[in-house]
Structure formats: C-alpha cells, structure tokens
User: What shape does this take?
Amino acid sequence: MDITINTPALLFPAISLIMLAYTNRFLALASRVRSLHDKFKTDNTQAIIHGQIKSMKYRLRLIKNMQFLGVASFLFSIFCMYMIYVNEMSWARVSFALAIISFAMSLIFSLVEIIQSTKAIELELSDMQGLEDPTLVDYIKKKFERD
Assistant: This one.
C-alpha cells in the first residue's frame, strides 16, 4: 500500500469530531455525578443512587480511556505525516497502523460506555412500576393491534 501525506490527514476530521463527542459525554456525566453526589450526601440510604454513582465512576474511566486513545491516534497520525515527510516509509506505515488501531479501540470503548450508559438509565428507572421492556415481538404485535 502506498501512503501519501494525505492518508493520515484523513483521520484528523474524524478524530476531532469524536473527541468533541467524548468531551460532551464527559461534561454531561461529570455534571450528573456532582448532582448525584450531593443527593447521596443528604440521603445515603438509597441503594439506587449508590449504584448509579458506581456505574458513573466506571463510565468516567471508560471516557478517560476513549479520550486517551483518541489523542494517541492523533499523535500517531502526526508522527506518520512526519515520517512520510522525511521519507521513512516503514515507520510511516507502522505509525499509521497504530493510529488506526488506537482510533478503533477508542470506538470500542465508546460502544462499551454506551452500553453501560443504557444500563445506568435502566437502573434509574428501576423503581418505577409498569415500565417493563416488551420483547420485539410483543412490541410489533401491539403496533398491529392499534391499526
């Protein structure tokens, strides 16, 4: 495969956008953690709040790793561009591969965080009655029964 200086540059917009999304997730989660922490201080008997805070602590670690891998991908891309510039193509290929791998791992951590986020929302709603999640078949049956 022939790598030009434009090849690693293609990752820059994707990495920038994903880093912006990660930062927004972090800020929203940090705000929620602060509010739940205050709520937990006043009423620490609620197991749901404790479970939510524990889940959020795990999610914060995931987001930190997502951001770290995104920045690593950025740095590997920059290093790749420099190696192409100085005509060290073997190092350029290795650093480009590392940039792609870092970016992919960042996205995998993001997927895990999204799954964990969904579980946290389900935990928050667990104290409400009548919100059982129907199966897909039940949902489709209900849709056709209305028509």
